[in-house]
Amino acid sequence: MTTKSTVMGPADADFTDAPGRGPVTVFGPDFPFDYAAWLEHPAGLGALPAAAHGKEVAVIGGGIAGLVAAYELMRLGLRPVVYEAERLGGRLRSERFPMPSAHQDAGGTASSEVVAELGGMRFPISSTSFFHYLKLLGLRTAPFPNPLTEAAGSTVIDLGGQTWYAESLSDLPALFAEVAQAWDAALQREFDLGGLQEAIRNRDAQTLKQLWNKIVAGWDDTSFYEFVSRAEEFAELSFRHREVFGQVGFGTGGWDSDFANSMLEILRVVVTECDTDQELVIGGVEQLPVGLWHRGADDCAHWPPGTSLASLHASTVDAAPSPQPGSTPHSRAGARGAVASVCRDAEGRIAVTETTGEVRSYDAVLATCQSWLLTTEIDCDENLFSQGMWMALDRTRYMQSSKTFVVVDRPFWKQIDPKTGRQLMSMTLTDRLTRGTYLFDNGPEQPGVICLTYSWMSDALKMLPYSAEKRAELAIRALEKIYPDLDLRAHILGEPVTVSWESNPYFLGAFKGALPGHYRYNHRMYGHFMQDDMPEAERGIFLAGDSISFTPAWAEGAVQTALNAVWGILRHFGGGTHPDNPGPGDQYPEWGPVELPE
User: Fold this and answer.
1) In sequence order, which ranges of 220-367 are alpha helices (DSSP H)?
2) Which of 231, 322, 409, 470 could lock 186 by a disulfide, CB 3.0 to 4.6 Å apart?
3) How far apart (Å, rounded) are the C-alpha atoms in residues 336 and 84?
4) Strand partners, 438
5) Pairing of strands 79-83, 56-60
């Protein structure tokens, strides 16, 4: 009989407000700790000794990891000092379109819901701690219009010059069903996918770890493509089947951009259902980090009721004024500026120097920036990390990503063509330059948004040299070949909006993509918050962000590593968790990721 652990929380925990749509998974399987249950427990995250109250902690990076950590550290009674080079939100960046006067409201502004999500835009409901903060701020979500979903309405697949229209998988030729069946069967045969997911549903940490640890040891050195090409289910099919799987895939679209990645990384996505049941945030996901910045907390230790990160920073000398909630935050919003260097000072504290030359020293520092920045934009004292950690931070591999959006007069694509009985335009997957095209409906007579192209890796690099206008033109030309009778240009309002994260010196890429053999590196970074056994010279600086997690590209990974760091900083200052609500570090020795031999 299997002994079940409660480390992942109650099996009937309800993490969403939508009846019947709660997640069937929580994140794992490397570390099956239920972060949402820890957050929502009435005992709170822990307590600090009174002597630590009010002490400053530097937080480098104002993305979701930095602001979640800063918010929770504030509630514990510390004083976070956030450093941000550009604008709050990081890669949760919602760009609002400037709208023609005919589409502005009475106040002269565009609808707050007409946004281009330049970074994260789809969030699996299995992201339970991420959704905890959405609920905290009262933000609303809706199903994301992924291919072959009800939210998309219809999907067009265009490959090799041939186009298919579908509202479900059954509308497509048998080739596509064969690919889907081969993928599902290979996962089940090789990894016991059903058993892994059942263990997560049952919060059975022991079984989950028994299954997963063996997979880690056997598959760390294997790429995604190697698995697909060697699986017997695909070996029985043609090369065309593998090609279609790479170009179209299932769930969120094509997989070929990830073919070089570690199979472990792809398997985590599938096991935790990151690729299904995804939501978008109505009005833009940037509302979440900006909302945490402005939210006044009434349950803080040490600080008076209503204290917010914005108010703590407003009292800092020379801090910039903060915009009001709901405004477009194109600045640091009161946070301190870009960091130039991090090193030990003469007293053994950690000195953070801004690009302005101002220096402040701290007992603890949390770095949430992309790991490459610690050897590029930031002059970081080499002695702050072990050589093994530097190896992991520098070997982290980031993937490129490009998006180009336009705003249109209305969701015209929902109109039915009387000749064909089909929608005028659909969510589109193709082998052409655009790769993925997504349609966002804000209401029948409201402006809509089209993500003309969302591409990764080499497809994204094709766009890198070009302006937003040139990118939009290239994408429109490709779509005109798929929809020759549609005058897409007639519906476009204003100028396009685009992003290439790899061209930004403060990001250098969109998200991590672990290569085969990178598990040991990920293990070092993820477990860095456990500092009891570290040399004194390496203690006090912590890491967080989705690139530190085992689930890069997902905001949940950023939130979880931020909460790991909160636990580590709590312990660093002599605090601890309540016995009824142990934190991630309390459970880590027993349930942490398996360690592979060096």
Assistant:
1) 224-230, 232-235, 239-247, 263-271, 287-294, 309-314
2) 231
3) 6
4) 451
5) parallel
Q: Which residues of 486-525 are buried (b: 16+ CB within 10 A; e: fewer)?
A: bebeebbbeebbbbbbbeeebbbbbbbbbbbebbbbbbbb
Is pLDDT above 90 for 499? yes
- CA atoms within 13 A of residue 543's CA, in its CB half-sphere: 26
Kindly state the tokens that stand for 261.
């990645």
Q: What is the pTM of this model?
A: 0.93
**pLDDT value of position 97:** 87
Contact 199, 211 (CB under 8 A): yes
Query: Is 539:532 a contact under the CB 8 Å cutoff?
Result: no
* Integer Cα distance of 378 and 181 in angstroms: 48
Instruction: Give, in degrees to the nearest 5, the angle at Cα 562 between 557 and 564.
Output: 95
| Separation CA 473–CA 479 (nearest Å) | 10
- 273 vs 279: CA distance, rounded Å: 13
The H or E element that residue 47 is part of is none
- Which residues does 467 contact at the CB level (< 8 Å), separation at least 6? none
**How much is the pLDDT for 271?**
93
pLDDT band for position 18 (cuts 50, 70, 90): very low
The whole-number average pLDDT for the span 476-487 is: 97
Q: Quick one: CA dihedral 321, 507, 523, 250, positive or negative?
A: positive
Cα–Cα dist 62/69, whole Å:
10
For residue 102, name the pLDDT band (cuts at 50, 70, 90). low
Taking the C-alpha atoms of residue 358 and residue 317, their distance in angstroms, rounded to an integer, is 12
